[in-house]
Structure formats: structure tokens, C-alpha cells
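One example copied in:
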Amino acid sequence: MDKIKRYLECYIPITTCNLKCHYCYITRQGKWKNEVVPIGHKPEEVRRALSRKRLGGTCLINMCGGGETLLCPDLLPVVKALLEEGHYVMIVTNGTVTAVLGKITEFPRELLNHLIFKFSYHYLELKRIGKTQMFFDNIKMMREAGCSFTLEITPSDELIPHIQEVKEEALHYLGALCHVTIARDDIPKEIPILTKLSDEDFYKTWEQFDSELLNYKKTIFGKKQTGFCYAGDWSININLGTGEMTKCYGMGNLGNIYENTDKPLRFEAVGNHCPYAHCYNGHSFLALGDIPEHNAPTYAKLRNRTDKEGNTWLSEDVESFLSGKLYENNKEYPKVKKWLINHKK
């Protein structure tokens, strides 16, 4: 079975969107109607920049746009190239771009087996535009094609009166409840939950979904991480349009992936120098193992579900891959940690 070497959080440079969710910053800033922007790099260029040789092995690559990821016009050849390179690829999508999803089903089955979809369940918007049936039909289409998937909803205060309907709908179409994430307010430095409820009432309201994702995020949200973090080494953030590579969100430029592709990439861990109030996306970084001493469920556990028929959302290969920890495949980490601590003195 494949082992995860690194996690790549890749930003797709598109803010255009076909939905207008009230809790989304793209909507609030009016960016949803911006012009469609391509990645602007040929698939072979991206594959060469992110080769298994340069990255040290097989990686989990998450692709997410500012708007709807699948509206990016040159995304599919890049996804296919990275799958052919041997990586596992996740795509964040609102699940409504049927024509693009249909083209993906034409990929070879062995590639689709390593492709994961993170379907964002925008219940109120789907009702407003009458696309609920299409949304779930598209999930079924990708599942039958051999892809893995997860379904998550953003818990907004406006959605609270509809919680029972949401649960019934998910059970009707998928035979399982959706996962629940946490919307955050990025303006205050504390990065709090985006809700008018108290934290206690927020969790009481949404815990009825029995979501492992929410259960874990509850334990880390609002809590400063002080352990030695290997983000910047084991996980990196990349803008696939510009090629800029950083240690974490807007932190520590590590160079450009499209430059000097015949040479190794530069990695350097954040260490004990994280400037953020808490690891608000720790469900990825911490669950995958960026802080080895931090006790977290596997990423597979946070994403998977089993339906009424006993079918899981993740394929066997994907579940095994997402059950691995970064520190298990980066045995050199004690040496790296010691060097960085001495280097920063």
C-alpha cells in the first residue's frame, strides 16, 4: 500500500462561482462574478514541478479554488497528470458542474481510484436554484466511477431551522449523514467561530450529526498549538497559478515550484513559531501528523462514513492512504527538529 510522504494544499486561482452562499467571503466581496482564470501552466509542467522525485514520494494533493474549483478551465489535465505521477488528489467542489464531472469519469479506472471529492453541501443555495437532485446525482456518478468522496456542510446560523430537513435529505440520497465543519471569522486575530451562538450552544446544536470531523475540530478550535510543527516540510501550501510555495497560509515563502525543476524543492518546518491563534484547519494538518506528539484521529476517520448498506465513502486504497501519518514516512524528523531548534537560536 502507498504511504503518504507530504500533504500539499494547492490553491486554484479562481474566484468565479455559480453559487452565492451567504457565509462565503467570495459572495460578501462580490468576487463570485469575476472573470474565469486558468492555472496557466501546462499539465506536464505541473507534473514536473510536483514530481514524486522532487517531493520524496507519494503525496496527498488537495485542490481548492477561492470560488468553484471545477470552473477552472485547465484544471482537469493537471489533475490527470498528477494522478498519473502516482499522487492521490482531492478536489473541493460544490458538486454542480455536471459537464466537468462527467469528463472526469472518462479517466482510466486506476486513476479514479486515487481521486477523492470533498463535496460541499450548500443546502440553502441548492434549494434556491433547484439543483438538489442534480447535486446528489453527481455524487452518485462519481462514486460509481470509482472515486472516493466525503460530504460536509458549513454550519451557519441561518441553516439551524432546517437541520432536520438536512439530515433527512442526506439519509434519503446517501444513506448517511453529512459531516459538519466549522465556519470561521477571519477578521479578528482570535479567528473565532462564525456564529452568534456561544461556543457551547454552537456545538450542542450541531453535534447531532455525529460527525467525527466536528468532534475533532471541537478539540482544537480556539486552542493554540505549541508543539513542534513540521508544516513547511511535511505539508506545504502552493498557489498553482503563481507557483509560490509557503510553509502554511501566508507564512514563510519557500520559493517557486516552477523554477529550477531539475533541482530539489526547499523545505523548512515552521517549528515552534506558528503565529496563528489556533490551527483552524488542523483537521488536515494535525490529523495527518504535522505535530507528531499531537494525538489525533486519522484523516480517513474524519472523512469517511458508512451508509445503511454497509458501503463506505472512501475506497480501500484511499482509506488506507489517508489512515497514514506523515511522521511514519518521515523518519528523519528528530534530526530535522534538533537542527531547526539550534538554527533559530
Notes: The beta strands are 6-12, 59-65, 88-93, 115-120, 148-153, 179-180, 235-239, 244-248, 251-256.
